[in-house]
């Protein structure tokens, strides 16, 4: 079988799986034409991944300009040294924000799901913050879940150069939680998996939403 034809069949099978249906004709054709048991196992893992549920659990280890922020911390909670540190960052127009985005992958199936890597796009309050890749393989066992901490680092001055300084600082502090004005996170995920030596992408993006309170 030619590689392009194989790729089309696998992608079609994934799309059918994501709708809770796998075409028996496609699966029978794959079984009859592919000789590698490993390849068949990889295809099955792609299908199981399509049935998994992706959720953002929250964020942790938030820092701005090297200042560690506690949960529900506000700007008024900064001490004198931290205020000077933040002011210096604003003066340099370099506001580095670090945090971990906690991604949970739940596999409700009785077979292992796996991905080789993933592309992602991160939006906060409808603003595109970051696009990137995570090259960490993930395997989720049957009827199990896996938590994936995604380390995020960005310079808010470069990412949101049309926003005011106050808006940038406020956005960083909102990552610690703000019940009066919660932030909305949208994580768009495109998983990849290797099948028969080729890397295939999940068709489209999986949209994962979370409210930071």
Question: How would you sum up this structure, described in words?
Answer:
There is one protein chain. The protein is built from 6 helices and 11 strands. With 213 residues, it is of the alpha+beta class. It folds into 2 domains: 47 residues, no CATH class; 152 residues, Immunoglobulin-like (Sandwich), CATH 2.60.40. Strands 5, 6, 9, 10 and 11 form a 5-stranded antiparallel sheet that branches. α1 packs parallel to α3. The chain is elongated. 23% of the residues are buried.
Write the layout of secondary structure elements.
Elements: H1 3-18, H2 24-33, H3 37-51, E1 53-64, E2 67-68, H4 80-92, E3 96-107, E4 113-115, E5 117-124, E6 127-134, E7 138-140, E8 144-155, H5 156-159, H6 165-174, E9 183-195, E10 198-201, E11 206-212
Antiparallel strand pairs: 1-2, 1-3, 3-8, 4-7, 5-6, 5-9, 9-10, 9-11
Helix pairs in contact: 1-3
